[in-house]
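Summary for the funding panel

The consortium committed to producing paired sequence-structure records for every protein in the target list. Below we show the first two records in order, beginning with the earlier of the two.
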Amino acid sequence: MARIKNIELPNNKHVNIGLTAIYGIGRPLANTICANTNVDPDKKVKDLTEEEVASLRKEIDTLTVEGDLRREVQMNIKEKMEINSYEGTRHKKGLPVRGQRTSRNARTRKGKGKVVANKKK
């Protein structure tokens, strides 16, 4: 059972897929980490030796992942909100930030749809 950055890697997955359980590591970066540490990416996590886990841990320690990355992202968002940039105001209002339309979708950011009462004639 491999534990890196206080995250349990899934045992029955390949190493390059299992590393993506760590926040901030995607498929391309996982493949790069495997190449740098000479770990076979097609090997299952449960079959890793202690030396391989140690080399993966050492390689990942050089990256900004998990809590540090989450904190950095939140600080960036907070800074945009403080300087009242366009993105910051969209974050404050709970609207889509990156130019998506709001007339048709965007329920995930805006919340549940609001019912508008019928107007009297």
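The next record, for a separate protein in the list, is shown here:
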Amino acid sequence: MKKKKLPFGLYNALLCLMAAIIFVLGVMCVQAAEEKWYLKIDLSDDGVSRLSDYTRSRLEALEEDVTLHIIHSYGIASDLYDLQSETLMKMAAECPRITVETIDPAAQPHLLLELAGDTAGIPEGTVFVRNQQGSRTVRIDAEEFIFARRIGADQYTIYCGEAMLIGGIDRAVDEDPAAVWFITGHGEAEEAATAQLRLQLSAMGLEVRSGVLAMIQPRPGDVLALIAPETDLTDGEAAALKNHLNSGIHLLAACGADTPIDRLPNLTGLMDLYGLGWRSGWAVESPAQTAYFVDEPALLSPILAEGNGVLDALPGRLILPRSCALATPALRPGTTSKVLLTTSDEAILKKDVNAATTAAQPGDESGCLPLAILAECGESSILQLSSAQMLLTGVEGAGSHVLDASENLSFVAACMEHITDSGEGATLEAGVKQLPTQLITFPNQQVQQQVSLVLLLALPAALTLIMLIVVLRRRRL
């Protein structure tokens, strides 16, 4: 009995249906794998699941046992916990001095009470770092591990776990770490706007705190940070800040073109004692004049001053948006000043900070403008910056977010290391990684395009081969 043969068109229809089903199933499998194993499949040189060379070197140099306690309730699914546990396990595998313990707050409330002094209000994903003697316990809140910002139409999610953990370990093994106090009470940049800078300082092993000048109690070696004040210091605050500087406490002062310098006489009078000052106006420069090309004249790409005594070379591309200019340091007995960053000789200081054009207008000044100065007086130092926006997060057009110009933070980190004499510290670039938005991440765009092209050609080629096999088999029959 002769077998019935399916019409050739029906064969094609079934083949196309089968290909569609396989394609859909493949997409579903990829999505399922991404949710469960996306940290394991990473082809990039700086993948989320890989420890940086900096972290390995720090772990290798660790001379004291440290226990990392992570708070996680049994049976609760958490993407953050997956990220944290991946990093913690790799750190423990890299360094025998690291011990990792997971604490279930419901089943082990006594351990949580010992670490935090309380059992309520401790979020999932909080990590406690304890030194060998148990004399110091550093808490890293869950929100410090993830840094998310929207830049234009794109949402970027950054995992900071590696940098935060190394900074926490440094603070746990150091019995007396230096602190950075963000001064409040004068309309300064809000905590959310300085979140990235705070993460950077924490990653360096520095304590990060906030408060009004009248209430805080900094110690010699600590740093006071005054960023983008809108109102002046009171007479008492100016006197207190002067006393702090006389006692070995440092100052980071950042103002820019939008800072009302003329309405801050107490602050400018204090800075004048050390031969420092800001010049009102808005500094702009043709991108062709700088060593680092930036397309916007308002986004200065500064030049490193020779013989600055802090850096031998710029760490990378720096961007100073909405910058004013610093006054040329005046000679003061007992004070030495070093210009760190400048513009080229072709820069313009526009008197109208709201001008619609960056071209020179009558009354504008031009020439080489100081952009960053480090003054040292006795045991104290003052780092003066001409742009506050270079330190802020989420400023439209500032170019100061992790994915664009995190070298701004690397520069500040280098200066802070010099000021606090804290030695080499982690920069956010050492441990911060953008979470992959796809299953496989690639070293660069060219490799990704090549792989995408192969994948696009592979499916049609496979279907064509199957069709040829079917046609040949039918002809033989």
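Regarding this second record: The chain has a mean pLDDT of 80. The chain has three domains: 10-42+440-476, 48-175, 178-429.
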